[in-house]
Amino acid sequence: MFTRVFRTIFVTAVCIALLEGFGYLALHNLDRTDPINYVFPHRFMRLKKVLAHDEGALPRYISAVNLNYMPTPGYKISGREEHNKDGYRGDAVPLEKGNKFRILFLGGSTTYGSLVIDYHDSYPAQTIHWLNILLAQSKKKLKTYEGFEGINAGMEGDYSCDELNLYLHKFRYYKPDLLVYHSVGNDAELDFNNNSYTPDMVNLRTPEMYQIYRYAIPPFLFRSYFFSYVAIRFFLMDKFNHDQPRMQPSLDIPCNWFTDKARTEMLLSKHKEGPFYYNTRTLINEANLDSVQVLLVPWALNMRDKQAYGRPQYVETVKIYNDMLKDFYQKYHTLWMDYTYEMINKDYWVDDCHLTKEGESQKGKLAATAILDYLISSGEAIDL
After folding, report:
1. Is the pLDDT of residue 119 over 70?
2. What pLDDT was estimated at residue 60?
3. How many other CB atoms sit within 10 Å of the CB of residue 106?
4. Do 188 and 317 fall into the same domain?
5. Is residue 23 a contact partner of residue 16, using CB atoms and an 8 Å limit?
6. CA angle (124, 117, 177) in 5-degree steps
7. CATH at residue 336
8. In the chain, fewer beta carbons within 10 Å around the N or the C end?
9. Domain range for residue 37?
């Protein structure tokens, strides 16, 4: 009797161990074969930890009223802090204005720096780095300020509406001296002919985005590698992305308030009746009201990449929006930064718009040059 019970326990333990071992290896294999593992390393193993409520395990982004979503404060990968406690990437800047020239960077993944592991290699951080170097090389100093500081408010997958929301509801309170606006790409990728399209973008995201703790599955079950693999691979993998804002093809409850006539008028007007135009114009006006200077950065496309040459509508819309930015520059007396594919070494492009850390450094130098030119012309940068 005792032998039979012992044998049963032993066999059960061995089976559980084998299943757990299989689950562990299978989850690692999901990560290893993940096509975007170079951007979001080990995302399925990290998702398991989040669903298991492991201490310190956090989703990359969380839902946020008014902001739609935001970088999770204190988010870490492999023990390295990606987002500071104030909810953006990079070193935290005090809310209270000090004696440094403060630069706010708004944009999507190309501002966030998705393809660089260390946030110090992102172009906003590199801009600050190069400003210090170029200021010294020009043998000048700041008249009013003592150095520079930057806020990387970039968010992966965001749109002009998100960038406007970020400024209105959060970053205007930081009282930046300069706003560097690098948008266009994500707005240009939208399918305006989709019947579910609405300019408020609610057709793209679920209201409970990243509220993953609301799943009815008890978190203790996700402490099992085998259960986690089965749940993620066959049920959760296609429902949401742990590292990116959750997208959906249409609303669960239709809200198609944007009519076909309005959509046609928007396209015929070259998007001057569209969200990118209105959001960007409003952002510039609001910044001006706050006495914040704006630097507009056009969208550079690597036409050697299939994400560009294979999507003519995307390329055409990028051109329309870049022209729109140029019109804003002339009409509202903002600053302008020349930025094209040819200005970055061709080996430093990863895809149609993202750069390696070497490319981010080149881009940061271009931005720093444009900002320093402004500081010199405005009389803020003076001879030593």
Report:
1. yes
2. 82
3. 29
4. yes
5. no
6. 15
7. 3.40.50.1110
8. N
9. 2-54+211-236
Answer whether residue 291 is part of any domain. Answer: yes
Structure tokens at 188: 């240009």
pLDDT in tens, 317-356: 999 999 999 999 999 999 999 999 999 999 999 999 999 9
Q: Which residues contact 195 (CB under 8 A, 6 or more apart)?
A: 256
Beta strands in the chain (DSSP E): 61-64, 68-71, 76-77, 80-81, 101-107, 140-142, 148-152, 178-182, 293-296, 335-336, 381-383
Report the C-alpha gap between 383 and 147 in whole angstroms: 15
Q: Report CA-CA distances (Å) from 80 to 74, 75, 277, 312, 343.
A: 10, 9, 38, 39, 32
Nearest to 378 by CA among 133, 104, 142, 103: 142
* pTM of this structure: 0.88
Grade residue 123 by pLDDT with cuts at 50, 70 and 90: very high
| pLDDT of the residue at 365 | 98
Indicate left, alpha or beta for 194 from its phi (over 0: left) and psi (-120 to 50: alpha): beta
- Cα distances from 189 to residues 28, 58, 251, in angstroms, run 32, 29, 19
Q: Is 244 a member of any domain?
A: no
Higher pLDDT, 3 or 136: 136
* First-to-last C-alpha distance (Å) of the chain: 92
